[in-house]
Design brief:
about 350 residues, Enolase-like, domain 1, Arc Repressor Mutant, subunit A, 14 helices, Beta-Lactamase, single chain, alpha+beta, elongated, 3 domains
Length: about 350
């Protein structure tokens, strides 16, 4: 991309910007009319042909204008980062901030509300993932009788998240027994990360005392089952917002997006990987590892408490996305969530 002349870069930027604003193939006369580049349509047409040959543009039909490829969008996003484009319009986020402020003590509700608001602000999908269980610290566990052979485990974490699991047990326990087990687990494991608790459980369960003490053994097994959260919780909102976009006149795109949403395991893995990165990350079309996501883009960022990731929030939309607005919304939302959680 560094090999492009400044004139060529300006034309490519104008084409991508024009296509994002108006979902029609862009011709040389459109560029001339909308942007003051001081070039003739013929000159722009020749440069567009060169850009097509280099893989930045494609021509969907012989007589049509050009549209950006994923490489063209990547050039555009990198240009936004280099220019530090900023909407400087905090009004679009004020309503979101008011809603999130009221949910500071419950991370799951906070992230759920965030996805709804991100979708309404961007008209794309809002997505979020709570922290992976390895990083989450246990504050308290409650155990409740549910039905015959089943109990409910309710975990309260230090981020304010509440995790529920219904567990099958092979031996009936009274509510009194469950209370005793919960009290023991809280005294032993409160304040530890779930990963640390798992390691401690393995050590404790290997001891002779546990084998001899039936109730203690049941406590260890219940705790192990209750902590089996391999990933954080996923929140997705706004499918109806996305389907109203002209990009989704194609039923194939609708099916692909639906499959991506349904495959929560893969989507969580994608967001979990992004939690390791600093700042807003933009993954465009074919850059996605998921086959179902190769016609979509994701703009996401990790929320952090110090050096510790406490979740990921982002936006998923078509590759013809308003990247400048999406980056602005995600970046400022993450800053606000981080401030809210630090003040708790």
């Amino acid at each position: 991309m560094e090999d492009l002349s400044e004139r060529t870069k300006k034309i490519l930027y104008a084409i991508v910007q024009s296509y994002i604003n108006y979902p029609d193939p862009v011709g040389s006369r459109v560029v001339t009319r909308r942007y003051s580049l001081g070039l003739s349509p013929a000159t722009i047409r020749n440069i567009m042909a060169d850009l097509e040959e280099m893989g930045f543009l494609i021509q969907p039909h012989t007589s049509a204008g050009r549209v950006p490829t994923d490489l063209g969008y990547r050039f555009y996003v990198n240009s936004l980062a280099a220019e530090d484009v900023n909407h400087s319009n905090m009004e679009i986020l004020q309503d979101l901030y008011r809603k999130l402020e009221a949910l500071r003590n419950n991370l799951d509700m906070l992230l759920g509300e965030t996805t709804k608001s991100l979708s309404l602000l961007s008209h794309y999908l809002g997505v979020a993932m709570s922290p992976t269980s390895d990083l989450t610290k246990l504050k308290k566990i409650d155990l409740l009788k549910y039905t015959t052979g089943r109990i409910a485990a309710v975990l309260f974490t230090d981020e304010g998240a509440i995790k529920n699991r219904v567990l099958s047990i092979d031996q009936e326990l009274s509510q009194k027994d469950l209370n005793r087990i919960a009290n023991y687990l809280n005294s032993e494991f409160s304040g530890y990360s779930l990963d640390e608790i798992r390691m401690k459980l393995l050590r404790e369960m290997s001891k002779e005392k546990v084998r001899c003490d039936t109730l203690l053994s049941r406590a260890m097994q219940i705790c192990q089952d209750a902590l089996s959260f391999p990933y954080g919780d996923l929140f997705v909102s706004g499918l109806s917002e996305v389907l109203d976009l002209p990009d989704f006149n194609d039923l194939r795109k609708i099916r692909e997006l639906s499959r991506a949403i349904e495959d929560k395991h893969m989507l969580i893995k994608l967001l979990d990987k992004l939690s390791e990165s600093e700042g807003v990350q933009v993954i465009i079309g074919s850059e996605n590892a998921m086959d179902e996501m190769k016609r979509f883009s994701i703009v996401a960022s990790a929320c952090r408490q110090g050096d510790r990731p406490i979740g990921v929030v982002g936006i998923i939309g078509p590759t013809r996305m308003n990247y400048a607005k999406a980056i602005y919304i995600v970046e400022n939302t993450v800053k606000f969530i981080t401030d809210v959680l630090e003040k708790r």
